[in-house]
Sequence to fold (94 residues):
Amino acid sequence: MSRYYDYVLGLIPAALIGVTAFLNLVGLSLTAAVPVGAGVALAFMGHAMFVRAPLNDADRTAAGSTSGAASPSGAGPSTGSPPGGGPLAGSGSD
Fold:
């Protein structure tokens, strides 16, 4: 999966420069071609962040096991929430 993000990091400047240069060579003005190239680069970034979002090791193993089998501790699949009920549980703010 890390190779995907390596490709995305290479495609961002390639899309920005390549699309801008191509549109400029076709006859579009530079001030109109740059936003189009930036939009294509932004689409690559959005795809990498939201469509194929990076996963940490716990999420990757949970996503890989779709059988729904209980974990070795018998507690079932992890939901990713911290123990104690929520993000502010045990923070000491009363």
The helical segments are 2-26, 30-51, 57-64. The CA atoms of residues 50 and 85 lie 27 Å apart. The mean pLDDT is 77.
